[in-house]
Design brief:
Shape: globular
Structural class: alpha/beta
Largest sheet: 5 strands, parallel
Radius of gyration: 21 Å
Order of helices and strands: HEHEHEHHHHEHHHEHH
Number of helices: 12
Oligomer: single chain
Strand content: 5-15%
Strand order of the largest sheet: 2-3-1-4-5
Helix content: 40-55%
Length: 288
């Protein structure tokens, strides 16, 4: 798989119309891709074990998308084989009254993964340059000083904050991978109808889904600027075609495994513990 084609090069101005959300590359269907996904999930489990044993790095996976793009399903599929003790998923809704009394990155920094673990943000601080931008009332709720809230540069400043924050994470051993699941408007319509018609999916429906769909074009422009201004060498964005759920899972699994392999993870050395192990073996064998 040509992984580079999913990466947003730093400094590139993104136009989402240039990316096909129905793209599946050379893969024809889910059945053909199943073996590859299963193999990557198995590899991910083995690599996670080394990450957990080493405790020098953490991996933070960030997912952003329009409603219905399949964030939940992709996370569930890709992470199905990992050790739950070494993985935590954080889902972020609107901030609480207490959280609004802090800076906007505060509640996200509290959920960062520990060294050795994989953290998953299902939506993230990027909502602060997306939803807060589309809905000015959310920005007003943050009780910012008037000069900051009304600044014409507020979004550019927030892009800079986020880039600096992610550079800080990278320089402290937290590897950041960011995935934008790129869904077509027609496919979103199909999936929202599923939420109305399919019994086991009705719980997912919210009237807010329809309201947000009405702002589709605004969100597309906001996503384009987000992707253009915050894809960096240390924390690049990946644009993942999302019209086919199985292909989203295939791409994300492949990219995560490739990243973990590039970290050259290994189990900690035990060469200095030979005497202790010999004594432990003697004690155990003496019980026989």
């Amino acid at each position: 798989m040509n992984r580079q084609r999913f990466v947003v090069a730093p400094g590139r101005k993104v136009k989402l119309k240039d990316y096909d959300p129905a793209d599946t590359g050379s893969w024809r269907d889910e059945r053909e891709a199943a073996a590859k996904i299963a193999s990557d999930c198995e590899a991910l489990a083995a690599l996670q074990d080394k990450l957990l044993a080493r405790e020098t790095h953490a991996l933070l996976l960030i997912f952003q998308a329009m409603d219905g793009a399949g964030k939940d399903g992709t996370i569930k599929h890709v992470m199905s084989s990992v050790d739950p003790q070494g993985c935590e998923v954080a889902m972020f809704s609107k901030p609480s009254e207490s959280e609004l009394k802090h800076d906007y990155l505060w509640r996200f920094s509290r959920r960062l993964p520990e060294r050795g673990k994989i953290g998953i943000f299902n939506r993230s601080y990027y909502e602060e340059v997306l939803a807060s931008r589309i809905h000015p009332e959310r920005l007003a709720e943050q009780n910012l000083p008037v000069a900051i809230r009304r600044s014409k540069n507020i979004w550019r400043q927030r892009f800079a904050h986020i880039n600096n924050f992610e550079q800080y994470l990278a320089e402290n051993g937290i590897v950041v991978m960011k995935f934008f699941l790129h869904l077509s408007k027609e496919k979103q319509r199909e999936r929202l109808l599923e939420r109305l018609d399919v019994p086991e999916k009705k719980w997912k429906f919210s009237p807010n889904d329809i309201e947000e769909r009405g702002r589709w074009n605004e969100y597309q422009r906001a996503f384009e600027e987000m992707l253009s201004r915050t894809s960096t060498k240390y924390a690049p964005w990946h644009i993942v075609p999302a019209d086919q759920r199985w292909f989203s899972a295939l791409v994300v699994a492949d990219l995560v495994v490739a990243k973990l392999r590039s970290m050259r993870l290994s189990y900690p050395s035990t060469s200095g513990d030979e005497r202790e192990r010999a004594e432990a073996r003697k004690a155990l064998e003496g019980e026989a």
